[in-house]
Structures are given as C-alpha cells and as structure tokens.
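To assess whether the prediction recovers the assembly geometry, we first specified each molecular entity separately, as shown.
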Amino acid sequence: MQVNEETIDGVLVVSPAGRLDSNTSPEFEAHLFQRMEDHPSLVIRFGDVDYISSAGLRVMLMTAKKVKQNGGRLVLCEIGDPIREVFEISGFLTILEVCDDPRGAVERVNA
Amino acid sequence: MQRAFRIQTELREIPRLAEQVEAFCEEAGVSMSSVYPINLVLDEWLTNLITYAFDDGAEHTIEVELRKADDGLTITVTDDGQAFNPLTDAPEAQLDGDIDSRQVGGLGIHFMKTLMDEIDYRSADGVNCLTLRKQPV
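The predicted structure of the complete assembly is given in tokenized form:
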C-alpha cells in the first residue's frame, strides 16, 4: 500500500492511501510501529483512504495504545463518509481523538 | 438480477471481489451508498472464513451469490470449511471502554448485525451457508 508522509510544525503526518483491510493492514501497522520509535506523537490523515474494515480499525487501536504508552498523542483527521460511519458504529469516535484537518490535528498535538 | 462469484481461500481475493460486487450493484441499480456496507460485511465474513475455517490443508472454494429483487438485495455465501454460526458462536463485540481496555474482536459480526436487515446461517453435510438480506437498497 502507498503511505505518504509530511512533517507539519515538527509533527509527523502519515497519509495512507487506498484500502485499509486484512491485506494491507499488517504492512501499515508495521510502518506505524517503526515510525513510533522516533515519533512519540502522530497525526494520521484519512483523506486518501477509500475503504477501512475492522482490520484497519485494529491498527488504529493498537497505535493508540502504543502512543499512550509512549506518553505521546495520536490525532486522526480528514475522516470522510463512509469511513466515518465505520468508526462511528465501532464506537471508535468516542475513544480516539479526531479532528477535521491536518493543521488542526497538529495544533492539538502541539497544544 | 443475480450473479455468482467463486473465490479462492486467499485474502487477496477480497479486493478483487469488491470490484465485481460494485460493478454488479451498479448494473442492478443498487444505490451506491449501499455498496460500502455490502462490501464491508462480505469482507469481514470472508476474512474470518479464509483465516480460520480452512485449516485442513485441502483445497477449498467459497461461492458468493448476489440477488437483487424489488424488495432488496440477498447475499449468499457458501463454503465447505469449519462451521461457525455468527449468531451463536461469535463473542459480543465490546463497544465501550477506554483505549487501554478496548479490544477489536467481534467487530466484523457487529458490522453484519448493524448493517444487514436479516441474517440466516445453516450448516448441513459439511456445507455452510450464510444468507444476508438488505432492504431496500
């Protein structure tokens, strides 16, 4: 899977693209866990994700647990429909920090 | 209108099937807003089957059939792996709790129950059949 990255105000913003499913999620999880070795806080941008299943949600939960252990902060952004609905019916919108756009997400991390 | 797809027991079949399901839905006049939930529920079920139901080393196939009628869409998934009734054998999904206590297990079946209107599962003579209905689509 394709993963783009940029740094905004010192915060790593990770943008996966395409499908986050049982095929691609193991690779994306390994990528994020490698990045977390150097970046205690992360922003993940969903603007280029067009599909997520429970396998992708599992990666978000594992990442959130790890970021918390590291004392950092995880903020997700640009979650459009219908992906937002998958987060919603999973109850994930109440436990994960979600913001509209990357800049706002970075501000929260730096707050 | 109806169409059947035969897939191998490999995860990489799932995105390929998703494209075929989308094409079917477009031809059959199923609203595009129903395509994501249909593909999500199929993905979750097939991922479960492919990951857990075929551990005897033998070759298996899974058949997926879609049937669109005036009263909605019927999805049938037939397999010859280990039986697993999503209505009685699956743990309840845990939907609350904080980040530390949350687990993801059971979410796929939770999606099925939330996004589909009817679920039926039958297993006889080594053949398992899951029937899902969504209406209207």
